[in-house]
């Protein structure tokens, strides 16, 4: 099961992430601690009397087509609870397991790690900084989790090293005037401007704004990619940690020894622990070859629908990584999926969907 560290604060503001039929309470902060998000979900479930429809503590073992699938589009779902399995038939299935399913831990890419005498873990197993008090720690990866953990560890560890392969554009939660960044910049007007301007111009403008806050090259974070080519990294405190020496930015690790890490620039640092914030992969082991994941990608129309099913009664929710909140997008995806399931709308022909998938992949590759 996906897990989070105790200090997690959401990267999207409440104004931009709430569901359309139940606004987040006014007294909740703009950027919420994960406990507040859980409270909001519980409030939503109570408001719409959803809990009676939910079976907790239940694992999905298998989702397979019924023998009459070509005519009915129905699925047989095998679940397990308290060691007992049971089967049920459903008219349609939504897969909502998300991107962050399996920890990606590429140990083979770090020679000498098997002889390292310290300890290492994936960021999904990190909970709090106290176990690292007084230690020399290297955090591998400059995504949201990696930077969050490096910043938090800098308050208790003796020294934190942040190892990055290709740098990162670091955005911040607070925009001009103290308003939430996404509330200020993720608007229809901004989207219209971006659609009218060449991508290179949009990249230039945003990169200039981010470098005005702190020069990424000066701080050792200058990325090889353009800002709109990758998922955003958001953190308010990293520049302060770097300029005060509590976090030192390093290139990728070339190899480990028993007590140290040797970086690509030839420098060596004594290390007690390693946190691998190297991301996640996703898979669908419960589906019987309906959708294949290749290089952490699945060929889905609009990131939602498999193309070659006889009946469109399977959809995937939340398999996009937007610049902004996932909740409103998931809500719209669910509305569309249920319209398709009920026959109120139809999907395009398979050839059209395949062409759209290929075009989307080509656009992503260019970015």
Automatic annotation (TrEMBL):
Transmembrane segments: none annotated. InterPro entries: FAD/NAD-bd_sf (IPR036188), Flavin_mOase (IPR000960), Flavin_mOase-like (IPR020946), Flavin_mOase_5 (IPR002257), FMO-like (IPR050346). It is found in: Endoplasmic reticulum membrane; Microsome membrane. One of its GO terms (biological process) is lipid metabolic process. It is a single-pass membrane protein. It catalyses: trimethylamine + NADPH + O2 = trimethylamine N-oxide + NADP(+) + H2O; hexan-3-one + NADPH + O2 + H(+) = ethyl butanoate + NADP(+) + H2O; heptan-2-one + NADPH + O2 + H(+) = pentyl acetate + NADP(+) + H2O; hypotaurine + NADH + O2 + H(+) = taurine + NAD(+) + H2O. SUPFAM superfamilies: FAD/NAD(P)-binding domain. Signal peptide: none annotated. GO terms for cellular component: endoplasmic reticulum membrane. It comes from the Eukaryota. The keyword Transmembrane applies. Its EC number is 1.-.-.-. GO terms for molecular function: flavin adenine dinucleotide binding; N,N-dimethylaniline monooxygenase activity; NAD(P)H oxidase H2O2-forming activity; NADP binding; trimethylamine monooxygenase activity. Its cofactor is FAD. It holds the Pfam family FMO-like. Keywords: Endoplasmic reticulum, FAD, Flavoprotein, Lipid metabolism, Membrane, Methylation, Microsome, Monooxygenase, NADP, Oxidoreductase, Phosphoprotein, Transmembrane, Transmembrane helix. Acts as a Baeyer-Villiger monooxygenase on a broad range of substrates. Catalyzes the insertion of an oxygen atom into a carbon-carbon bond adjacent to a carbonyl, which converts ketones to esters. Active on diverse carbonyl compounds, whereas soft nucleophiles are mostly non- or poorly reactive. In contrast with other forms of FMO it is non- or poorly active on 'classical' substrates such as drugs, pesticides, and dietary components containing soft nucleophilic heteroatoms. Able to oxidize drug molecules bearing a carbonyl group on an aliphatic chain, such as nabumetone and pentoxifylline. Belongs to the FMO family. This is Flavin-containing monooxygenase. It comes from Anser brachyrhynchus (Pink-footed goose).
């Amino acid at each position: 099961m996906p897990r989070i560290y105790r200090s997690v604060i959401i990267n999207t503001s409440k104004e931009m992430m709430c569901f359309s039929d139940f606004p987040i309470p006014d007294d909740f902060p703009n950027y919420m601690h994960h406990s507040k998000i859980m409270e909001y979900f519980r409030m939503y479930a109570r408001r719409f009397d959803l809990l009676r429809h939910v079976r907790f503590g239940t694992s999905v073992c298998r989702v397979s087509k019924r023998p009459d699938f070509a005519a009915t589009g129905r699925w047989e779902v095998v679940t397990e609870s308290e060691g007992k399995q049971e089967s049920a038939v459903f008219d349609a299935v939504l897969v909502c397991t998300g991107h962050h399913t399996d920890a990606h831990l590429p140990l083979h890419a770090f020679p000498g790690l098997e002889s390292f005498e310290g300890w290492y873990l994936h960021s999904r197993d990190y909970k709090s900084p106290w176990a690292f008090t007084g230690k020399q720690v290297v955090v591998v990866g400059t995504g949201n989790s990696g930077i969050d953990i490096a910043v938090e560890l800098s308050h208790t560890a003796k020294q934190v090293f942040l190892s990055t392969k290709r740098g990162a554009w670091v955005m911040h939660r607070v925009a001009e005037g103290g308003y939430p960044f996404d509330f200020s910049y993720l608007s229809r007007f901004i989207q219209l401007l971006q659609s009218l301007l060449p991508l290179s111009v949009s990249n230039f403008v945003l990169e200039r704004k981010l470098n005005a806050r702190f020069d990424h090259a000066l701080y050792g974070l200058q990325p090889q990619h353009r800002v709109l080519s990758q998922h955003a990294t958001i953190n308010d405190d990293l520049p302060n940690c770097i300029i005060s020496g509590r976090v030192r930015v390093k290139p990728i690790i070339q190899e480990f020894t028993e007590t140290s890490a040797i970086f690509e620039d030839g420098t060596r640092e004594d290390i007690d622990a390693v946190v691998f914030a190297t991301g996640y992969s996703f898979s669908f082991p419960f589906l019987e070859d309906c959708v294949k994941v290749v290089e952490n990608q699945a060929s889905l129309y609009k990131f939602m629908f498999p193309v070659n099913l006889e009946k469109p009664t399977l959809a995937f929710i939340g398999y996009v990584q937007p610049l902004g909140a996932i909740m409103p997008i998931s809500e719209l995806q669910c509305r569309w999926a249920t319209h398709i399931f009920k026959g109120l709308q139809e999907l395009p022909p398979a050839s059209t969907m395949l062409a759209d998938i290929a075009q989307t992949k080509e656009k992503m590759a260019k970015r």
